[in-house]
Structures are given as C-alpha cells and as structure tokens.
C-alpha cells in the first residue's frame, strides 16, 4: 500500500482502550507516559494505528498511590491517557464512556474493521447483558477485543491449545 495513503487511513482510524485499573493494575513505578507508551507500542506492533486514546478507571473510594496521585490533579503528562474515577460502579462508567465513544466515532466501511476498541476488565465477564451489548457493537463493524485479566492470568495460552 502507498505510504501516503497508509498515513491518511491512519488519520481516520481511531483506537480506544478502556482499562479497569483495579482488575488489571498498572505497575506503581510507571508514569502515565510510560504506561501509555507501553500499551500503544504493543498495539502498534499488532497492526493497530498509533492514534490511540486510553481511559483508565480507578476506584476513587480506595486510598492508595494511584488514586492519590492521578485523580483530582491537573494532567501534567503529554500522552493521551486519562484516569477517571469509577468507584464500585466502574463498569457502568466504562459502559457509558464506550457508548459516547461509539457515538462520536466513525464506523468503518463494512469491508474492514478500521475503528477499534479494547476493554481490559473482568467486569464484563460472564454477564449476558454486557456480552450481548458487546456482540451488537461487533456486528456494527467495530473491531472489539475484550481482555479479562483474571481469566487470562489463570488460563494462559499454551502451545497445546
């Protein structure tokens, strides 16, 4: 593919990452820019475009270094990673933000899955309502990846599978 055409497509393509930082915590020693770079590097390596925005949901009721350092402070880092309060209703907050993102995002042309979003959370696992909602979004030609950290850690892939 022509590189100029490739860069034009990349401009139109968007990837959103919705990350439950309680189910899948970030390393405490990492800065927001380091976290963003690590996630985007892994996605670009897997052929996602580098126009990526990350929303990370924290339990604002829980005291700790992540909560105290990242919630309620002015954003001082350059990357497109945003830390949001979610408390016990992180799943509802995340779902609302997903709907807003879908509403504001262009859908792909039906032949390819150009608009992608990833969800890192155990909150959607084994819930019929949310499973159906995510399947409906996939049918609308969004490239969707659901990562369930606890399940993936407890049942890692092996060459035998």
Automatic annotation (TrEMBL):
GO cellular component terms, semicolon-separated: peroxisome
Sequence ranges assigned to domain NYN in this UniProt record: 14-147
Domain of life: Eukaryota
A GO molecular function held by the record: RNA nuclease activity
Biological process according to GO: regulation of gene expression
CDD domains: PIN_limkain_b1_N_like
Protein name (Swiss-Prot/TrEMBL): NYN domain-containing protein
Natural source organism: Brassica carinata
